[in-house]
Amino acid sequence: MAKLLIVEDDEALRRLVADWLKRQNMEVESVSTGQDALAYLNASEYDLVILDIGLPDIEGFSVLEKVRQRSSVPVLILTGKKTVEDKERGFDVGADDYLTKPFDMRELTSRVRALLRRPRQITPELLSRRDLLLDSKQHQVRKDNSDLKISPKEFMLLEFFMRNPDQVFSAEALLERVWRSESEATEEAIVACIRRLRKRLDENNNEAYIGTVYGVGYIFKSN
Description:
Blueprint: E1 3-7, H1 11-23, E2 27-31, H2 34-43, E3 48-51, H3 60-68, E4 75-79, H4 84-92, E5 97-100, H5 105-116, E6 126-129, E7 132-135, E8 140-143, E9 146-148, H6 152-163, E10 168-169, H7 171-178, H8 187-201, E11 210-213, E12 217-220
Parallel strand pairs: 1-2, 1-3, 3-4, 4-5
Antiparallel strand pairs: 6-7, 7-8, 8-9, 10-12, 11-12
Helix pairs in contact: 2-3, 6-8, 7-8
């Protein structure tokens, strides 16, 4: 049974979402502040976090940044902020999905289930490219013998690139081949994910691993 944490200051909505997801056979805990969310995440393991942005003590984006410093747990932002800039910021700081209020509970369930799904590997294996080592079974990435904390989306994208090095893929092609099961994913989400992945992989050179072929797409450089 999947274990979820809901971070929402609207008590009525928090209870409504929690009760709904419990009826979908999920274990749910909920808090109303960013501080409580960080405390719960520090004390326990969760399979998914549903995070509001307008919290009373800490902005949700800041909570997500702190979470990403120590965890790759999938995070679904659930908020009334609907602008493209808000969505872009959400993906930039590490969100795996973004759903705006008001919403249909059935859509929320679909988003949650999509994030909880993990691609099954028939023959788990290690992928080694340059100084990167990706373990598809353990869902871990190491660089220069140090563990990298990356989100599930970033892991999926990096794994695809490492399985298909030195090939150029457009954002549309990556959307289709990496996240094809998620109907609400966008090319903007792909671009934001690449930006975050570059930042984690390359401290000084943003294109040391994932290069840009302008007007065409992106390429993982094997050497």
